Amino acid sequence: MTSSPIVKNLGRETCREELAAFCAQIGLKTPLWVQGAGGNISRKFLDGEALRLWIKASGYRVGGVTKDVGLVEVDLTNFYAAAHTTGLLPAPNNLEPATVIKEESYHSVLGRSTIAGANGQGRPSMETGLHAMLAAPWVVHLHALSALLMAHVYQQCPEDLAWVCKRHRTVVLPALMPGLSLTWATARHAQASHVILANHGVVLALQHPDELASWQQLEYEFCDRHGFDVLTQLLSGDSASFSRATQQPIPLRFYFPDTAVFFAKIQPFLRQWRSSAAPEPLYVLETDDQDLQEIWAAQQILYAACPELPSLPDAIVNSVASLPTEQLRLAKIAS
């Protein structure tokens, strides 16, 4: 069980209201931090002796969360107990991927740990496990574009990201399946403040929402230092740079799990851009769907910033959309 610095019950309703306000703040940073219904934020609190948390519900946009819509309450005390009873915890020592049976068990444990009623909305995020593994009272999981570039720099030369790792108790994880596999990997770094996820984003463990400002400063400094000018300009609020980056046709890449999850929806709206000079097919997206636009814009920005950025491994691309928790998320979005 993860230790927690939470020492008093601040009130479940107060926690829910504060979390909703924080979600609204983060939701303004599309598509640089979140795209569509991606990303999730949580707040732990004590209800008597039981450790609980509010977390964004699966299938809801971060910016659309209010205190009455899009938040789910999870009994973490029950979650930890059930995870140990069913063999989901403790996490294995290596980075072995979770089996289908284990993922189904994780999906079931999440469902049994969710507190019905009390204005809860639907199912908790499939990433609830990683929120549970980190000791901080606030956990913010962003699909931040800068984090994908940080992981890429680290994979090319770890020394080039040493200044980030030392400054913020940062660890960098390779590309992993969302859900239980990522929960296991996070469990080995329960005291980290920044967990950079290759081809996925970042998880921030915060003592207070004001600490999010340090991430903003860090990602700007990183992009500026490493010459990712497109991101540097976008992070400084340059709207012209956004227009230029998101009007360019790009080759098909799967930078994020969400690109794979939503590819069946994206594919019908892709139009091939005819260019005899391009070594591979280029595409533009033609749709008014806001979620798909944001996912594709993130792809465009990343390609403009770093054309050599690798895609997710094929094994993850081919498997992620079939996870039980992802199937529920797609069903919620469709409804």
Please tag this protein with its features.
single chain, 335 residues, alpha+beta, 7-stranded mixed sheet, two-stranded antiparallel sheet, 15 helices, globular
Describe the secondary-structure layout.
Elements: H1 12-26, E1 40-47, E2 50-56, E3 71-75, H2 76-85, H3 100-113, H4 128-133, E4 138-142, H5 145-156, H6 162-168, E5 170-173, H7 180-187, E6 194-197, E7 201-206, H8 212-225, H9 229-235, H10 239-246, H11 257-261, H12 263-266, E8 270-273, E9 282-285, H13 290-305, H14 314-319, H15 324-334
Parallel strand pairs: 5-6
Antiparallel strand pairs: 1-2, 1-4, 2-3, 4-7, 6-7, 8-9
Helix pairs in contact: 2-3, 5-8, 8-9
Reported for the largest beta sheet, the result is: 7 strands, mixed
Helix content: 40-55%
Strand residues, percent: 5-15%
Q: Which strand order does the major sheet show?
A: 3-2-1-4-7-6-5
Average the pLDDT over all residues and give the rounded result: 90
Q: What is the number of helices?
A: 15
- The shape is globular
Tally of strands: 9
> Which value, in Å, is the CA radius of gyration?
19 Å
Overall structural class, as computed from helix and strand content, comes to alpha+beta
Please write the string of helix (H) and strand (E) elements: HEEEHHHEHHEHEEHHHHHEEHHH
- Span between termini: 36 Å
Report low-confidence residues grouped into runs of 5 or more: none
